[in-house]
Amino acid sequence: MKLFHYIIQGRVWRSIFRTGLPETNYRRSLVILNNFFLHIHPAKVKKSTLKFTTTFYLGGIAFGLYLILLVTGIYLMLYYRPSVPLAYRDMKDLEFVVSNGKLLRNLHRWSAHAMVFIVFLHMLRVFFTRAFHPPKEFNWVIGVFLIIFTLLLSYTGYLLPWDQLAYWGVSVGTNMIKATPIMGEKIRFLLLGGNFVSENALLRFYVLHCVVIPLFLTLLIGVHFWRIRKDGGLQGDLEHYAEYEPDIILGKNIRVEQRESPNQSLVGTGNDENK
Ligand code: HEM
């Protein structure tokens, strides 16, 4: 215990962790605000927003799956080479030669499928709890880009095993793009690096899948989280919400009171009116 106190009172420790032990509410807030990883959270969070049934933790689960995809994806890159003679062989080696290779590949595959599904469910949750209303409409727009990039990530990964399913799946998909008026053929040419699915397409999809799309997605997820914080937390926060769009709160039979003192609550029940 003495050693512990000696360390946390030492100069090195205090130069990194400046707030001391989180023994009081004030200190706890400082710990959150001063920590690079934690400061994405508001210093205070309403209990109601932490309830499972408020969000079903779908956004958090989507983020968790994305982290699994990043870690397993980097691992897979150590065994996979994006060229026509090697890609399919590398996938087979992964399944039958590399220790735990099958587990690694399946973890990546299933997390990818699950992420698409969970992000879609998360979007439904946001929609049905009307959490896209002001001030959150910008975060909804970011969310739309997030689901597009999630689908693109999934689609570009589809070609990489270079098996029959991948080849024909991407042939069909890019032919559908070709049907887009005016720009269709040009977009297909750009995506494939030619007029048919070949080595160029494999390399392009590889770069998009492993570098370009994850970069955009990571950046957008950062903005998405930052916006949740700046919009006053999750939908459960009716008080904050009422300041922006009282009508929505009124619609739920909750009346917005004129705030007389800073400590007074903004939200009352509609029934108060008759008193
Ligand atoms: C990569 C995909 C995504 C990730 C990792 C993600 C993550 C999150 C997390 C962790 C939350 C807070 C907790 C929760 O609501 O579960 C959240 C909230 C939110 N998300 Fe997403 N999200 C994603 C996609 C989307 C999509 C596709 C939309 C809509 C088109 C969307 C719109 C929103 C909105 C509006 C909120 C605030 C909800 C509220 O205030 O109650 N997100 N997101």
UniProtKB/TrEMBL annotation:
Residues 23-237 form the Cytochrome b/b6 N-terminal region profile domain. One of its GO terms (molecular function) is oxidoreductase activity. Pfam families: Cytochrome_B (PF00033). GO terms for cellular component: membrane. Keywords: Membrane, Transmembrane, Transmembrane helix. GO terms for biological process: respiratory electron transport chain. Coiled coil: none annotated. The chain crosses the membrane at residues 56-80, 110-128, 140-160, 205-226. This is Cytochrome b/b6 N-terminal region profile domain-containing protein.
